[in-house]
Amino acid sequence: MTAAPDRYNEMGNDMKKILIYGDSNTYGFDPRDGSFGRYDAKYRWPDILAARYGNDFQLSVDGLNGRQIPATPFGQGTVDKWIRVESPIDMFVFMLGSNDLLCMANPDPNGVAWRADRFVRHLYGTKKNNLHPKQILMIAPPAMALHDTPYYRRYDTTNGKLSQALFEVAEENDIRFMDAAAWEIPMAYDNVHFSELGHEVFAEIVAQQLFEPWLAEMRQAGQ
Predict the structure, then answer these.
(1) Residue 149 belongs to a domain
(2) Could you give the C-alpha distances from 194 to 37, 147, 188, 199, 203, in angstroms and in order?
(3) Does pLDDT of 200 surpass 70?
């Protein structure tokens, strides 16, 4: 059962509301001791951003270990319900795809992109969600460098094919896109999950590419 999303800050009149939806790298999974625990909040990228931009943005975060791109009416409906509970929102951000690939006997980036395309079209095509494509940001997941592990070698994504397939989905649907695979995020020993430093680096890049430009626009509009 999905845990309740993490919510940060009370909504102010001028605050922008952002929903962040993802897998273990959004949850803040700590792979080091096998307990399925989380890093401390100060090392989780959504919490880092919430602490830094709490006066201007309200973040509601739903990260879940093992999550794949919703591909069933039930899964998509769960997201719809969350969107409507939080409505009105300014942006829906999601970073998924790694688990979809890892669960395939024959890994196919285009198959992952097909699921992403269906999900994106559902998000903005469902009238009650009240989402415009430009209010959706898809982040391609960080590269999984698994080429040195014989069994998992076929799941290696350092060739950029997964990111390219997801970029094409974003371009076709006219939604926002970022490619975390190009950011050289420091990873934990398994090369699948962020390290503590990786969360900090990821948060800083998202801050510079999304939050800072958006904040500058807000300040300029308020002048």
Answers:
(1) yes
(2) 13, 18, 6, 6, 11
(3) yes
* Residues forming a β-bridge with 118: none
Please, what is the angle between helix 73-86 and helix 109-125, to 10°?
Answer: 50
Pairwise CA distance, residues 23 & 215, whole Å = 27
Residues pairing with 93 in the sheet? 20, 137
Domain of 84 in residue numbering reads as 6-222
The pTM (predicted TM-score) of the whole model is 0.92
Write down the pLDDT at residue 176: 98
Res 223: pLDDT = 47
Note whether residue 205 is domain-resident: yes
Which of residues 36 and 134 earns the better pLDDT score?
Answer: 134
Number of domains in the chain: 1
